[in-house]
Amino acid sequence: MSLTKKIVTYTLLASFTLIMMFPILYAFLISFMQGGEVLQGKLWPESFSFDNYISAFEKVPLLTYLLNSLIVSTVIMIGVLAVSSLAAFAFVFINFKGRDILFYLFISTMMIPWEAAMVPNFQTVQALGWLNSYAGLTIPFFALAFGTFLLRQQFKTIPHELYEASQVSGISRFRFFYKIALPVSKTSMVTLGIYSFLTAWNMYLWPLLVTNNEAVRTVQIGLKQMQSQEISTEWGVVMAGVVIVILPTLVLLFLGQKRLQEGLTQGAIK
Amino acid sequence: MKKVELINFQKSYDQRTQVLKGIDVIIEPGEFFVLVGPSGCGKSTMLRMIAGLESISGGDLFLGDKKANHLTPSQRDLSMVFQNYALYPHLTVEENITFGLHVKKIFKKEQKMRCEEAGEMLGLTDYMKRKPKELSGGQRQRVALARAIVTHAPLCLMDEPLSNLDAKLRARMRSEIRQIQRKLGLTMIYVTHDQTEAMTMADRMMILNGGEVQQIGKPMDIYNEPKNTFVASFMGAPPMNLIHAKVKGSSLVVDEQWLIPMSESIRAAAQLNEVTIGVRPEHIQLANDDEPGFVVVVSNVEVLGTETLITFNIGDKKQWIARWSGQWNLRIEQPLRIFIEDQHLCLFDAQTGGKLDGSQDSSFLNKEWITI
Ligand SMILES: Nc1ncnc2c1ncn2[C@@H]1O[C@H](COP(=O)(O)OP(=O)(O)O)[C@@H](O)[C@H]1O
Ligand SMILES: [Mg+2]
């Protein structure tokens, strides 16, 4: 690559990155500004003080919300991984009549938007008495067609001979599942785990519907609360809340990235 | 050691086409039995049915004296080596070898002992902590073998275990597998499409084509007495030379050129208008001056060191190969006079390919060959 080409490429890349990152960067900077500074349209805070962060924790029960979000997202992640991997395993390694038809039926539910199923889901959860509980927040999300699809594709790449070899040595199906199929599919499992965790973390509408007290509400609702309640002029405080809320997401992405890059199926067959 | 008995063994995947068309065979305890045939003839299918990985559509399977049609693979007490090795990629060599032993209620200490023993036998001691991807093809193959050995199962099945190795390694593994099988007294059923492997390894072998048994027997018997043209052309490298001949009066005529007088007895035995003549490459000789011979023209020469393969044209389109020991420096297009002893001529039915009885018996052919 010639020097001019390099300069052009990097300039373009840098400016697009800046455009993409600007909202987050700006939110980060605002979180250190005093109320007046924001309205004056300043880009850089006068001083970096943590006053806004402190008041964010004081004005709404942010810590409770964070904890709730953490619990809900983790439970959903585990639930999705367990249900999807078991379903995908059945679709790949167990022969039964109408297996493929059932799978395509399963997949076709991906075309029904979640919002369309919201009312019946709400009624179900209400009938079960799960309003204002972790169960109502998490269980409806366990069956994820996308997750089953992703893991089925992954399991299909496992050579069938591995399964047959384990059958010959008398290893049970479940042992094969958790000793061979899962470890070999670590990469896809991590991907799906992160995906479902983040989706759950960013959930807004459903928690709003099924909760109405602070004890089980999640962060996204907390943010909305901050923004719409008494402190609507205090943008610094709201942004401090936002920064706190996106931190776990970033941490998770950084941790997961390494795992995501590992290829694990090499050397299974010639 | 375990006897294996197949009775009218059949397989159909789609209820319409028969992949295996009724196979009967008894494999003796401690025998090295090779299943050989061209690709797609049903070898793997048969092996997988014995292993219990594929259902049996018809007939019976006996392992030992027990009917095994409906046993699960692990109840059959056998081990299996797959063509692509089927090693667990995330486990070390040691874990791969011992994985599954706990099912057989073998204690950790015993597992370790067996693993070391098998590793030693196959020269894997230095690689026990490595993952499969850190091994060469030959080493992976050995791990797969070790995994079969540690189970101490009396019956071992192998499906083309050497086909992913290069020629040199293949030759070495052939003899290693054979030695291990003898040492442990395993009953072995070994699938291959390679006739050299079959010839060199088998106690007995079965040649399969299109789901039907062509011949069962000891390698040398099969080589010397092929039951039909398929076996004749499949076994041996290069294979038996074949050519059509017409029966005219009391003679066989090859390509309107050669005349071979026939005795009365063979004509009575084979009421045919056409036969196929077969000759092994090593039985084609250079004719001495006093012997009757045919003149053929050399079209290719391959000197292999201790022997030479000479390709020559015979008839309109056919080419035959002769194998002579020593190094022969022949020109292309050079005419040669060849001679075949009568006892080395095999006659087959030209329609069915079946061997004509008595054709090994030299008495039915007159001594003289006459060129028209
Ligand atoms: N699972 C299967 N479903 C349908 N047909 C199969 C299946 N496995 C093998 N066959 C067919 O059975 C025949 C024999 O196959 P196989 O036993 O694999 O041959 P080989 O091992 O001798 O090359 C082939 O024609 C193949 O197409
Ligand atoms: Mg095969």
From the structure above, extract its key features.
heterodimer; A: 270 residues; mainly alpha; MetI-like fold; 14 helices; 0% strand; B: 372 residues; alpha+beta; Rossmann fold; OB fold (Dihydrolipoamide Acetyltransferase, E2P); 6-stranded mixed sheet; 6-stranded antiparallel sheet; 9 helices; 21 strands; 32% strand; binds adenosine-5'-diphosphate; binds magnesium ion
Task: Please explain how this structure is put together.
The complex is a heterodimer of chains A (about 270) and B (about 375). Chain A has about 270 residues and is mainly alpha-helical. Chain A has helices at about 5-30, 35-40, 50-60, 60-95, 100-110, 120-125, 135-140, 145-155, 160-170, 175-185, 185-200, 205-210, 220-230, 235-260. Chain A has one domain (about 50-265): MetI-like (MetI-like fold, Orthogonal Bundle), CATH 1.10.3720.10. Helix content of chain A is about 70%, strand content about 0%. The longest helix of chain A is centred in the first third of the chain and has 32 residues, at about 60-95. Chain B is an alpha+beta fold. Chain B is built from nine helices and 21 strands. Chain B has helices spanning about 45-50, 95-100, 110-120, 135-150, 165-185, 195-200, 220-225, 230-235, 265-270; strands spanning about 5-10, 20-25, 30-35, 60-65, 65, 80, 155-160, 185-190, 205-210, 210-215, 240-250, 250-255, 260, 275-280, 285, 295-305, 305-315, 320-325, 335-340, 345-350, 370. In chain B, strand 16 (about 295-305) and strand 17 (about 305-315) form a beta hairpin. Classes of the chains: A mainly alpha (about 270), B alpha+beta (about 375). The interface between A and B is medium-sized, with 23 and 33 residues. Magnesium ion binds near residues 43 and 44 of chain B. Chain B: GO terms for molecular function: ABC-type transporter activity; ATP binding; ATP hydrolysis activity.
Spell out the helices and strands of chain B N to C.
Answer: EEEHEEEHHHEHEHEEHHEEEHEEEEEEEE
DSSP E strands of chain A, number: 0
CATH superfamily caption of the largest domain in chain B: P-loop containing nucleotide triphosphate hydrolases
State the separation between the terminal residues of chain B, measured CA to CA. Answer: 59 Å
- Number of separate structural domains of chain A: 1
Structural class of chain A: mainly alpha
**Major sheet size, sense and barrel closure of chain B:** 6 strands, mixed
Oligomer: heterodimer
Overall morphology of chain A:
globular
State the low-pLDDT regions of chain A, or none: 263-270
**Mean pLDDT score of chain B, rounded?**
88
Residue share in helix of chain B: 10-25%
Alpha-carbon distance between the two ends of chain A: 38 Å
> What strand order characterises the main sheet of chain B?
6-7-8-3-9-10
- What is the CA-based Rg of chain A, rounded? 23 Å
Helix content of chain A: over 70%
* Chain pair sharing the greatest interface: A-B, 23 and 33 residues
Structural class of chain B: alpha+beta
**Second CATH tier, the architecture of chain A:** Orthogonal Bundle
